Fold this protein.
Amino acid sequence: MENKVLMKGTNALAEAAIQAGCRCYFGYPITPQNELPEYMARRMAEVGGVFLQGESEIASINMVLGAAASGVRSMTSSSSPGISLKQEGISFLAAMELPALIVNIMRGGPGLGNIAPSQGDYYQATRGGGHGDYRTPVFAPASIQELYDITMYAFDVADIYRTPVVILGDGMMGQIVEPTVCRKRQEIDLPPKDYVLDGAKGRPSRIIRSLILDTFEMEEHNWKLKRKYDLMRGRLPQHEEFMVADAKLVIVAYGTAARIAKGAVKRARREGLSVGLLRPITLWPFPTQAIQDIAKKVKHFLVFEMSTGQMVDDVLLALGGKAQCEFYGRPGGVVPTPMEITRIIGRYWVQKEILG
Amino acid sequence: MKKVFTKPKSLKDVPFHYCPGCGHSIIHRLVAEVIDELGISDCVIGVPPAGCAVLAYNYFDIDMCEAPHGRGCAVATGFKRAQPDKIVFTYQGDGDMAAIGTAETLHAANRGERITAIFVNNAVYGMTGGQMAPTTMIGQKTTTSPFGRRPEVEGYPLLITDLIATLKGPSYVVRHSLATPAKILATKKSIKKAFEMQIKGLGFSLVEVLSPCPTNWKLSAVDAFKFLESRMEKEFPIGVFKDVTKG
């Protein structure tokens, strides 16, 4: 039996990165994710890796760029305002097709906002975030075990598709402590890193660039990226279904909001309401097909987010008018209880006259 | 027949796109000659900037990675930390080095990052069409300082090399000029020394090169080189600002 230990979210993520072979961490302090760089500062020294506190978020993501172009598994982490600063670098990573992991432990916003758990960065994360025509895979774990496992997997996804990958957590996911099995890395076949700049020894010199002045060449690069994104759209979507089989109403929520929603679904079930939960694990690519499959039977959806409503747009796109969809949100760092969501479910149930 | 002059091996056989009289071609050649002479072409990584020299990777026959505007020293830091045995250098203009990238430059220098920065100062934004640079001189007219740079409005030219020399991290900080063949040779000597400092692991090395931009200075190539001596060198004195190998 594998060793199960109590781990805080940020530490589990950091340890998983180490186990996945990440050997370069660059970051700048920001609450609520400081335990992650703090863990890395000690741990990287133990494994002979690089930990460097950059002078800014901008510097840190560009250090990641240099390390990624060196062929080393590299990452940075931050929280909402810091992630905004990293967007320039993320756009370059996407353009240059360099693998890297970017962790966003979201807090309340816009602006400085606050340091409480929030989900206000969904649009930024799932629409590329920076300038230009690109996407990044986005994972939204909802337990510390899943956070650990997804972190390891995220590095593989980054290498396979040569892309920056985002893990989107929130202050709650970063701070909670849960029993976690620290699995060892499963070695898989990865494509050769034939882009790495390590001094042109015994081979022609290489260039890594994003400037493509010829418009037709740039267009071709855009289409090449698009083909890669389409490949990911087909392969990457992940979701969890909970009590969906006989549900008449399905809640859609991710991350911490999904944990709360799960509690609410259990409560609603005790009251005799056949409610289920669909939890997207990948936010991009979005589990559109899963929602469409459920919508063949279920005609009522309720999206719950710790924001004023962002993922709800992707749910509406997936439904394409085939089912009714309402939204409930608590932005600003407010973390509602399962009881509150149960009340919302009950109200929706009555208003829509859903029969149990 | 004896060959007395040849193209450096570290330069590709590609004609430069730079304007006639531009200093980049000269500085590219100097850097390539130094790479050849030190025999490091198979272990060197170059980081060109945004700006006129962004296309440097089309000319150097070495591994090169473009950096976002101003982030050269941060990208180079990533390379050097990931591969401490490689020789890493940035090639940056004045806007890159001393405006948008001031923080990255100063902090890399202050950390004593074992990288070499080649800083080309022509007191103007070349690629974007002649706008004011952090190093534009008082009274100098540019497209965004059409009345000449006024201290009370646009502030003073930033002497970032002098600033970096005050830090503890750098090992070698110099300023040169391309104004005359003798000065060009002196520039090359310092570029070589800066790379040698890095090879010895002595810390951040910086070579600023005052370089002509005839196109945006609206001068002939000959007059631009004269301007280097008559104006640029007055505002930006050439010399060695720091050298840890000298007591």
